[in-house]
Amino acid sequence: MRLSNAQLLVQQQKLSPQQIQMIKLLELPTVMLEQRIKEEIEENVVLEEERTESDEEPQQISVEEYIREDETPSYKSRLNHYSKDDQPRNVQISGGRSLQESLIEQLGYRTLSEEERQLAIYLVGSIDSDGYLRRDLESLCDDIAFSLNIETSTDELEYLLSIIQRLEPVGVGARDLRESLLLQMESQPLDTPEKQLAHRILEDHFEDFVKKHYERLMSRLAVTVDEFRAAVQEIQHLSPKPGNLFSEGGVEAAPYIIPDFILDYHDGQFDLSLNSYNIPELRLNRHYVDMIREMAAAKGEKSESDKEAIQFIKNKIDSAKWFMSAIKQRHDTLMRTMQTILDYQREYFRDGDRSKLRPMILKDIADRTGLDVSTISRVVNSKYVQTQFGIILLKSLFSEAMQTQSGEEVSSYEVKNILQEAIDSENKRDPLTDEQLMNILNDKGYRIARRTVAKYREMLEIPVARLRKQI
């Protein structure tokens, strides 16, 4: 075999580090952009926030003016650190204990040996936040042998788990939904026929119950519709996720959404702006700019340390200039894209009627802006616009085009609205199948296949007809 050298000319497309950072900046929503700018200010000494006039040197006040007594009313002597432009912010205070902390505290009132207590605490730590133990006991035995150096058996863990399952909240520590519902049912006296029937359904006919084979169940149990309905209501009073019932703090579950765009509509005119609240204006630190000018203009041979200092400051200045340019380019790209979306969906933004949404895909906006489809995708991803009818996720404005029998193109949202209305008004004892829904849409002039109906139904998070059935 002979070895030889050869030159190959290969053309490759690679992104520069600056382009990669620009892409990342474009993807960031407003709330994360603020944090990214603050991180850049901390890393780059040349970069600083633009100061307003109120941040400049305070006016000199003489001692006589300072100590002079006047007749200022008491209400005017109170401090007010808020301006008219300040927006109220909700301060989220986390308090209380976690589910695991509460269970461990309750274990302290149980008579357990030191080794049993360690095993029980390990089991508690393996319980998910919704209250379920989703790992099998054999795997936990192996983990305990490695982490705690304790040899145990599944029987011992089963005994300790039975103790945990008697703690509050009821139903915690279950391996599946059936076990959790049975634990909750058995924690209360089965003193009525409805509760006894409900327990029997969960104990012996759980699979048929979750699949809503109600007629088959009523036939097997030999009960009437009213008796079966009363038992189902008892089951519906139980919690499918017992861990979620544990709450001792004042934590608000719903996070706040900070819109990236603000769209106002007055007297038939739109006013679109980028939400720059709390986004600091950037500038170069004049001290370092003047320093490098003086060092570069200085005559004579420069020492090695001076050359390194000049190069260091020059690199920081170049990095700061690029970052400020990237922020401006991000602003221009976002406004350009959002303005195009506004022009495309102008009828919808007037009153928020989703039936007026035009079919729109990423390529439609890319063609009108001259930007790449991937750039449009990054702009609309995780971005929100505040309108007079609420805060809208930009990604939700994009939809496929459907064609009616007359050849008119309509948005898939219109089809979804008809599906939703048909399902909301259906007879819950005999829900509409996908084929029946397809016939309803075809009668209204929408040419749509049954598989497309199933796809839209799943997008609306609506189960199949059998699972929508009620008694």
Main sheet specs: 4 strands, mixed
- Alpha-beta content class: alpha+beta
Q: What percent strand? A: 5-15%
Whole-number average pLDDT?
80
Indicate the radius of gyration in whole angstroms: 33 Å
DSSP strand count: 8
First-residue to last-residue Cα separation? 81 Å
Q: What oligomerization state is this entry in? A: single chain
Short description:
The chain contains 20 helices and eight strands. It has helices spanning 17-27, 30-43, 63-67, 99-107, 114-125, 137-147, 154-164, 177-186, 193-204, 206-210, 214-221, 225-236, 286-297, 304-344, 346-351, 362-369, 373-380, 412-424, 434-443, 450-459, and strands spanning 47-49, 261-266, 269-274, 282-284, 384-387, 390-393, 401-403, 409-411.
Explain what this protein looks like in three dimensions.
With about 475 residues, the chain is α+β, with helices and mostly antiparallel strands. It has four domains: about 95-165; about 175-250; about 260-395, no CATH class; about 400-470, Orthogonal Bundle (Arc Repressor Mutant, subunit A). The chain contains 20 helices and eight strands. The strands form three sheets. The chain has a four-stranded mixed beta sheet with strand order 3-2-5-6, with helices on one face. Helix 9 (about 195-205) packs across helix 12 (about 225-235). The radius of gyration is 33 Å and the shape is extended. The N and C termini lie far apart (about 80 Å).
